[in-house]
Amino acid sequence: MSPRTKVTPEEALAYHLEPVPGKIEISASTPMVTQRDLSLAYSPGVAVPVQAIADNPATAYDYTTKGNLVAVISNGSAILGMGNLGALASKPVMEGKAVLFKRFADVNAIDIELDTEDADEIINAVRLMGPTFGGINLEDIKAPECFIIEQQLKELMDIPVFHDDQHGTAVICAAGLINALHISGKKIADCRIVLNGAGAAGIACLELLKAMGATHDNCIMCDTKGVIYQGRTEGMNQWKSAHAARTDTRTLAEAMVGADVFLGVSAKGAVSAEMVASMADNPVIFAMANPDPEITPEEAHAVRADAIVATGRSDYPNQVNNVLGFPYLFRGALDIHATAINDAMKIACAEALAALAREDVPDEVAMAYGTKLSFGPEYIIPTPFDPRLIHVVPPAVARAGMETGVARRPIVDMDAYEHSLRARMDPTASILQSLSVRARREQARIIFAEGDDERVVRAAVTFKRSGLGQPLVVGRPEQIVGFLTTLGMPEAIDEIEIVNAAMIDNLETYTDFLYQRLHRKGFDQRDCHKLASRDRHVFAALLLAHDMADGMVTGATRKSAHVLNLINHVFDAEPGDGAVGVTALLARGRMVLLADTLVQEWPTENDLADIAMRAADVARSLGLEPRVAFCSFSNFGYPVSERAVKMARASEVLAARGVDFEFDGEMTVDVALNTEVMKSFPFCRLTGPANILVMPARHSASISVKLLQEMGHVTVIGPILTGIDRQVKLCSTSSTVNDIVNMAIMAACKVG
User: Fold this and answer.
1) In what order do the strands lie in the sheet with 497-499?
2) Distances (CA, A) of 164 to 124, 180, 201, 399
3) Same domain flag for 189 and 176
4) Which residues have a Cβ under 8 Å from the Cβ of 618 and sit 6 or more positions away?
5) CA–CA dist 143, 163 (Å, integer)
6) 152: containing domain
7) Which terminus of the chain faces fewer neighbouring Cβ atoms within 10 Å, N or C?
8) Does 296 lie in the same domain as 191?
9) Of 292, 321, 350, which residue is a domain's last?
């Protein structure tokens, strides 16, 4: 079980405040530069699609964003775990939901908060917004209003209306249950199912399971007053009454005797060990209360080793997480221009998720989670970051929608559709998430060398509270305490380890080590003692060299070249030592590595080949299959130039070495990155866009990085120092807290 992530109020507020308030923004999808662009986008050009839509409303899906736009709507009357705090207070939650839609399924979503608790007002407001959206996602609306609102909107609107608090949980619960029953050798029609929590999610779970074959009187629903049985009058409503069973049981404990399945959407501690012990053989326990389950897996397994247990928590196996459902349900529904999301589509989603969990797990997922995941009691539901979800679940949903008659535009070529789904997702997000998971598994000790900088201290705390590992901060305790106090989190001092030369007993050992390396380079014992005791970069490197940590991060306060020179006092990181700096650029769903951005001033063709091989190692440690382009201002011999010839020769050197990755050059950057431009050179050995650009010299690499960083809204990670025997990662002086944390993750995962 991985360490739980700790989030403080101060960090949460800072996350929502920086770099700009909130979590979403609007960006234009078409050019808006020239007068002609303006004329096409607005007057007079806009009149043409307006008339087309007036003549044929179905074309709105062709000429507007309607077909990929979902409204996330709430009134804040039932914010998860917080209750009724009102519409405005719910906005951060709804923005977060919109972000999840985009991240996992490339669905554009806009949050809308309605300041009313009147169901009729909400129904009318949403109905009137129907022309704008391709789907409606209702969220955090209290019962019973949520039932009324959803049902009426389904009847009034011709687009999907989906209350995720109900049906999202139900779908994932159903997916897990399919596999749990498969393992235990039971059929849903024969199972005795007990559900605790008669709210929106609980009722939806039972409704979906009954649609999948569960028997009505085998499903016992409980609320705070006990079993919901036929004839009960206290605390009842029409939705509970629909699930009242013929049973003599009156309490949850009585209902649990002999039960095959327990589903919990209630409260922490609602289930006791005695209740679990009374269940049937091979019981299935889905304790989904948040943030703490009805019973923990440890508690359940202590009395029933044969139990299959799932929770809503990410730090336990089998997380019932709605993000596995709603993005892909809407993706499939939007792509067929569906009029609704019906039970068949929900069941298709559940069955697709269940089938995916039974398949062989990709290496990148297994690598991220630190184990070879395979179908069994502790893996019955796919992980949220499984890259296959996007092209497995939406097609299943779309097929079900087409088969049940809710598709206005059926998909003709399903293979092409699946291919398009693979192409639309941002692979960089998965890469970074995979690295984070690997870091949590490794629990490495990482030195943050510059504790005199507030950003570094914040990054160290974030690294710890994210469960990524143990930070060691080099600095003066009083200064670091001051930073943390100013930041409003003085308690964090107990979560990090502070080190400096005055606090250790073996400084002389470090000094002697340094003297042995530097005494023939003009340094005497006194010089070495000053370096070891006064320079934080050198001191941190010495700690690393003496196995006090697994990696280090530095460079936030000093120029990279200067820091590298200091690190060279401790490690062999000169050009002749094989050291290379690789910078990762992330933008528009693409990760490209540039090299050498740090070490080699003017590399020869042999040096360039070495750089390519080092960069390829970095790419593979990030989960990328290397495709190297030796970059120049020329393409394959024209125009002729000394600088271009060098790059062509580097390609020849690499060919002679017989490397096991794609490469070619010399070529311009547009040829390297744009497959359409690349077609002009059919002899090019690259089978796709390059993901490693080897630059002619350090200055060209550095200029390229800085230009893209300032002009292109590019995320920069690095330079990643590779080719030395320890994990030393250098930030730039402009690094944000998140940038520093990313470099620490790279060190923890031994990237490079």
Assistant:
1) 497-499, 469-474, 444-448, 551-554, 727-730, 715-722, 580-587, 590-595, 692-694, 627-631, 662-667
2) 20, 23, 9, 21
3) yes
4) 582, 593, 720, 722, 751, 752
5) 11
6) 46-159
7) N
8) yes
9) 321
For the chain, list residues with pLDDT below 50. 1
Dist. CA 175–CA 328, nearest whole Å: 14
**What element of type H or E holds 612?**
helix 605-621
Residues 580, 525 share a domain: no
User: Taking phi first (over 0 means left), then psi (-120 to 50 degrees means alpha), and beta for anything else, what does residue 22 get?
Assistant: left
Q: In this structure, is residue 119 part of a structural domain?
A: yes
291: number of Cβ within 10 Å: 11
Asked whether residue 589 falls in the same domain as residue 674, the answer is yes
Cα separation, 360 vs 367, in Å, equals: 13
Q: What is the pLDDT of residue 228?
A: 96
Measured distance CA(444)–CA(60) in Å, rounded: 53
Contact 234, 205 (CB under 8 A): no
Closest to 179 (Cα-Cα) out of 371, 378, 345, 399? 378
Rounded to 10 degrees, the C-alpha dihedral 696/699/701/703 comes to -140
* Residue 411 maps to a domain: no
Q: How far is CA 522 from CA 123, 530, 535, in A?
A: 80, 14, 18
Tell me the C-alpha distance between 201 and 136, whole Å: 18
d(CA 534, CA 518): 17
Query: What's the CA gap between 601 and 697, in Å, rounded?
Result: 6
- Give, for 722, the enclosing helix (H) or strand (E): strand 715-722
Q: Are residue 186 and residue 263 in the same domain, yes or no?
A: yes
Q: Label the pairing between strands 69-74 and 108-113.
A: parallel
Neighbours of 541 (CB within 10 A): 29
The domain tally of the chain equals 4
Q: Is-contact 745 468, C-beta < 8 A? A: yes
Active-site residue numbers? 42, 97
At what angle are helices 91-105 and 389-403 packed, to 10 degrees?
A: 90
pLDDT of amino acid 400: 97
CA distance linking residue 220 with residue 243, whole number of Å: 8
Contact indicator for 279, 309 with CB cutoff of 8 Å: no
pLDDT digits (tens, 9 = 90+) for 299-318: 999 999 999 999 988 878 89
Beta bridge partners of 498: 473
Tell me phi and psi for residue 580, to 5 degrees. Answer: -140, 140
Asked whether residue 409 is assigned to any structural domain, the reply reads no
Q: How far apart are CA 747 and CA 727, in angstroms?
A: 5
Check: CB of residue 727 under 8 Å from CB of residue 742.
Answer: no
Do 440 and 358 contact (CB within 8 A), yes or no? no
DSSP summary character for residue 688: S
315 and 172 belong to one structural domain: yes
Task: Report the SS3 class of residue 668.
Answer: coil
- What is Dmax (Cα atoms) for the chain? 94
Place of tokens 């809407």: 330
**Residue 540 contacts residue 530 (beta carbons within 8 Å):** no
